[in-house]
Each structure stands twice: as C-alpha cells, then as structure tokens.
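Predict the 3D structure for this chain.
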Amino acid sequence: METNVEEFDILKPGIWFGPKLTVDQSLNMTYLNDDTRLLSEICLDLKSGHFHRKKDLMNFMLNSNNFLLKKQAIRLYCHVAVHSDIPFLSEFLTTAEYDEVSLFIMCTPDLLSYNVIPLLFALLEEYEDTLLEEQILHTIDYIFPFGYYSEEFGYYLGEKVDIDELEKEFYEFFNKQNKNLYYYDGKLAFIGNLTQELFPLVVQSLQKKEDFLDTTISSLLSIWSGEKCPVSYGQLISEREYNLVIDYIQDIAKRKWEPGSKYFYGYKVN
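Done. Predicted structure below.
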C-alpha cells in the first residue's frame, strides 16, 4: 500500500502512529527540529519491528523538554512496552511534570499489562486528594473493574474508596493470572476480539444512519495491525465504509495472531 509521506506527522498522528514508510519515503521527510526528527525516526523503526529502539525512546522521555513530543513518546512507549519494561516507568514518573503524569495514567491501559496496577496504587498514595486521584481510580477500574464507574447511571461512586481493600482484592485476582500474557477488557488481548466488536457497531451506525461513535476499537486495530481502520470516531457510515470494513476484517483474519500476545504494527512486541 503506497502512502504519501505528508500523512505522517509525529505531533499529529491521529488514531495511530501513521503509516509504515519505505526507506526512500523516510529520507524525503522534513522535520521542524532535531527532537522531532529523533522521535519520528524512533517511531518509524518501531513500526518496522526494531524494538531495540525502545532504549532510545526511554532516553527521549527522560531528556526531552518538549511536552508535545513527550506526549507522543509516552503514548508510543505504552504500546511497545513489555512487562519487563514497566519498572522504567517508575523512574520516569519520579521527575515527570503533573501533566505528564496525567497523560501517562490515561495511556496505561495500552500497556495491556496488569503489572502496571501496583504502580497506579503507588501514584494513588502520592496524589491523594488531588484531581489525579479520581483519574487514577478510573484507570484502575478500566483495567481491573471494581465498580467505580456505573455504566447504568453514568457516574462515579462519589465516595471514598477503601484502597487497602481494593489492593487486597486486586492481588487476589492478579496472583491467579498468567503474568507472561497480555490482557485487554478482562480477556486475553486478541485482535480477533476487536474485529468482532467493530462489525456490529458499524452495522448499527449504517442501519441507524448515525455517526460511528466508538473512540477506542478503530485506534487499537490500526496500531496493533499496522493497517489503518477504515472507520473512526464521528464518521458517517455508508455502504462504502461498510464494505471497506468487511475487507479490512477479512484481511486481518488472514494473518497469524496469538491470543495473549502484544502486537505493534503487525509485529509481536518483545
């Protein structure tokens, strides 16, 4: 699939991190500054499965003073980190600014790892009685649902959570899980589950002539597979988009995916 190089901008990657580029395309790219060039090159290499560049990404996160670039670096790291990479995040957070901590909390579900929950508990203690406390609890509830958010009524508990009891409940659950595997939405991470969720949402939008309103599935499918999902949030679904989604799902189904493994642009993360 040929892709115009202008479509890739590390500062505005959209629902994914842009298309894979050939060597010639990457050489023809222009950058605003050296930091933008460095992060773009790291990202391009990671999209080609060169996961040794994670070390460079870690250094970038620790040393860059550009929040907009660091924002994308944090997001990227969460998608390419394995379980053994999570301890680095403790080092990063010791010097991170408030907004960077908030962004990290938002991105933690993309790690697909229950191993990050203890780190979130540590942040709860540090940011108790701040605005981040609710954000952390919401994120823990997203990864490890404990009823903090009511789907039926659409609001948070609005009461003090017993953190000690929650930690105990989590570790009882955590100790029963396979710690070598990756999880999404309470199940082993598997791209086939996402395509099964995508299709009925597309059908519903088409039948009701409504905009496609999911914000997560199309993004994860694009990032995990390396092929951009043909529908995204706010898009009006027509027969054309419906047929594109069918082709997209069939293409993904032809490829080999292991449940419980983590993928980035079609490569198993290591």
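Residues 227 and 251 are 10 Å apart (CA to CA).
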